[in-house]
Amino acid sequence: MTSKVKINLEYIINCSPKVLYNRLSTASGLTEWFADDVRVRGKRYTFIWDGSEQTAEMTLHKENRLVRFSWIDEEDDSYFEFKITRDELTGDVSLLITDFAEEDEVEETRGLWDSQVDALKHVLGS
Questions:
Q1: How far apart are CA 44 and CA 57, in angstroms?
Q2: Core-most of 10, 66, 69, 125, by most CB within 10 Å?
Q3: Buried (b) or exposed (e) across 93-117, using 16+ Cβ within 10 A?
Q4: What are the residue boundaries of the START-like domain, all occurrences included (predicted)?
């Protein structure tokens, strides 16, 4: 079994951390840009893309700052995480995404996040 590599991505998002957090942590917010549909039961989030679904548990969250989802059906401890930071000097809000991918899928995964975040920016009008 190949080990997954950690991917860290950063995007500047022109909106308040509060508005961004809502898009990262709620079913309705995630449906707008991340998945075709999202169902939530307690801390379990089921993400649906093109008819297939994957379930993750929200294992970490800090209001307007951080959301982490850990995949239920993965044998490793892989997760994906959204972290919101604001630059003290410029006031720029950044979205830091941490994800994991097989070594031969890193570029593909980066490309996928780029297009997902483009959709997010479109929804936010930024």
A1: 4
A2: 69
A3: bebebebbbeeeebeebeeebeeeb
A4: 1-125
Question: How many residues are recorded in the chain?
Answer: 126
Angle at 63 between CA 57 and CA 64, to 5 degrees: 110
**Region 78-88: what's the mean pLDDT?**
96
Kindly report the pTM of this predicted structure. 0.93
Residues 27, 35: contact at Cβ < 8 Å?
no
3-state class of 103 per DSSP?
helix
Which amino acid is residue 52, in one-letter code?
S
Task: Give the pLDDT band (50/70/90) at residue 2.
Answer: low
What CATH number matches the domain at 4-25+60-124, 3.30.530.20, 3.90.226.10, 3.20.20.80, 3.60.70.12? 3.30.530.20
